[in-house]
Amino acid sequence: MAKKDIKSIQTEARHLDDFSIKQNASIKSVSKFYGEALLSAARFDSSILALSADLTAPTETDLIRDQLPKQFIMAGIAEAKMVGVGAGLARAGFTPFLHSFAVFLTRRSFDQIAMQVAYPKTNVKLVGFMPGIDSLLGVSHQAIDDLALMRALPNMTVLEPAGPADYEDAIKAALAYHGPVYLRLYRANSHASNLSGFPPLAIGRIRQLSSGEDAVIFATGLMVEIAVQASKRLKEESINASVVDCASIKPLDVEGILRVVSECKIVITAENHTVVGGLGSAIAEVIASNNIARPFFRIGVQDCFAEGGSRDFLFQKYGLTANDIIAKVKHGLAQ
Length: 335
Description:
The structure is a single chain. This protein has helices spanning 3-12, 33-44, 62-67, 79-91, 102-107, 110-118, 146-151, 167-176, 222-235, 254-262, 279-289, 311-317, 322-334, and strands spanning 48-52, 72-74, 95-101, 125-129, 157-159, 181-185, 207-210, 215-219, 241-245, 248-250, 266-274, 296-301. It is of the alpha/beta class. The chain has two domains: 13-185, Rossmann fold (3-Layer(aba) Sandwich); 207-334, Rossmann fold. Strand 1, helix 3 and strand 2 (72-74) form a beta-alpha-beta unit. The longest helix has 14 residues, at 222-235. The termini are far apart. 49% of the residues are buried.
């Protein structure tokens, strides 16, 4: 094999990198917003340790590996073992951040998370990348049920930031809370955000990004930007929709949710996750528990498995686009 062929293979090698970003050959590198934020925190706090389950570059922990090697641990392809090690480190006074793809971290080590992290309330931070159906690698790599699994565990705090602009605040919130936290993140090649001017991400608080009396769209993660787009397009048709960022999925801001619901005619939830047990279920529980009657619709993966594909293709096929939100709002208002 010619040297130029070997070089070409090395250049294009992606291993298990975040395929949701590297789908375009023109993208030569991906900014590491989370990795940079964690590295900054770790420089000032030597108790912060980064553990990786053989996915160092895709979880951006290579920055700590290379610059703070004494604060990095490679656990190998052994997520359950990594959780056990992390729990032990937390009991020894460290603050371990455990990293893998969301589907591996939550499914493969669920019992260890329950028994060694959630039950004893150890100060472990679980960080899952490549959420929902945002993956070319198919069902085995798509975390469509991680929110349901994590929010079902007592003592577990669950955060899904809208995007990289919130990652630093998410890390600060996780560090300020002494106990288990699950962070659900995706990698992005832009730091652009519609959240400038709004309060920082906080545990147990919603952020209302727009106001409208016709509908409220509760969204989390990747779906926040899509909900904002839908709201802007609806406004062009004189339909006013509130958009609420629910980055704190557990604990929920019950008071804030009830306030916004009381001001709107219909309720929409939007999540890159199965509609069973995630954000939609959480909002429905709040509404039902408070005896509120509103037309209610859930945008998300409709209790099915997906397949590999680009984000645009999968979101369109499984109904996670701005068009789908708009159609659902119009349908609800027409009833």
